[in-house]
C-alpha cells in the first residue's frame, strides 16, 4: 500500500476515533441535561456553554454529543441490517438456478434504481418516525446494494478451481460457503459496508432534517441543522457545529474504507 493511502487510512481512523471518543465520553459525562433550557436563548459560545445555546436555551455541545450517539448508532444498526439481509440474499441469488438468478438480478436492479433516501422516506412515512424505524429503513435500502455485490462476488468464486476440487472431494455446500465463499468475498463486502456506513449517517441526518428521523427530545445532527437555519446569521455556530460533525464523521469513514480496500485487495497493492 502506498504512503498516500497509508496517510488516508490514518487520517480516516483518526477522524472516526475522534467522534467515537466524544460519543463514549458522553455516556460518562454531559455538560448539561439534554432538556435543560436554563442557558438562555442563543447564548454566544463561552463560559459554561462551550458552543453556546440554541433558540430554546439548550446547550449546543450537549446536543452535539447526543447527536453523535444517534449518528453512530444509525451507522452500526443500518450496516448490521443491510449486511445480514444483503449477504443472505446475495448468497441465495449466487447459488440460484439460471431463471431464479435472473429474477433476483432484475429485482435488485429495480430496488437499486430507487435512491436510498427515497426508499427510507417511504418506509418511515408508512411506519412512523423513530430511531428504530430509521435504522430499519436505511438498512433495508442498503441491503439491495449489498445483495447485488454479494451475488456478483459469489458467482465469481464459484467458478474457481478450488470450488470444483471441494465438490469432487465430497465437501457439502454449507462447508464450502463457510470455508471458501465467505472468506473470499468477505474483505470486499466489508469495505462496501464501511462505505455504506457513511451514507447511512447522511441518510439519517436527511430524514431528521425532514422530520422523519429521531423524534424530539432526542438530538440529531440533521434536526439541529433544520432548527438552526432560521438563526444562521445571528447564531452561526448552531448550524456550523452539526454540519462540521457530519463532515468529520463521513469523511473519516470514507477515508478509512478507502484505506481498508487497499489493505485487503492485493491487486491494488501490487499496482501501486
Automatic annotation (TrEMBL):
<feature type="transmembrane region" description="Helical">
    <location>
        <begin position="70"/>
        <end position="96"/>
    </location>
</feature>
<dbReference type="InterPro" id="IPR050366">
    <property type="entry name" value="BP-dependent_transpt_permease"/>
</dbReference>
<keyword id="KW-0813">Transport</keyword>
<feature type="transmembrane region" description="Helical">
    <location>
        <begin position="188"/>
        <end position="212"/>
    </location>
</feature>
<dbReference type="InterPro" id="IPR035906">
    <property type="entry name" value="MetI-like_sf"/>
</dbReference>
<comment type="similarity">
    <text>Belongs to the binding-protein-dependent transport system permease family.</text>
</comment>
<dbReference type="Pfam" id="PF00528">
    <property type="entry name" value="BPD_transp_1"/>
</dbReference>
<keyword id="KW-1133">Transmembrane helix</keyword>
<dbReference type="InterPro" id="IPR000515">
    <property type="entry name" value="MetI-like"/>
</dbReference>
<protein>
    <submittedName>
        <fullName>Peptide ABC transporter permease</fullName>
    </submittedName>
</protein>
<keyword id="KW-0472">Membrane</keyword>
<feature type="transmembrane region" description="Helical">
    <location>
        <begin position="7"/>
        <end position="30"/>
    </location>
</feature>
<feature type="transmembrane region" description="Helical">
    <location>
        <begin position="103"/>
        <end position="125"/>
    </location>
</feature>
<feature type="transmembrane region" description="Helical">
    <location>
        <begin position="232"/>
        <end position="253"/>
    </location>
</feature>
<feature type="domain" description="ABC transmembrane type-1">
    <location>
        <begin position="68"/>
        <end position="257"/>
    </location>
</feature>
<keyword id="KW-1003">Cell membrane</keyword>
<keyword id="KW-0812">Transmembrane</keyword>
<feature type="transmembrane region" description="Helical">
    <location>
        <begin position="131"/>
        <end position="150"/>
    </location>
</feature>
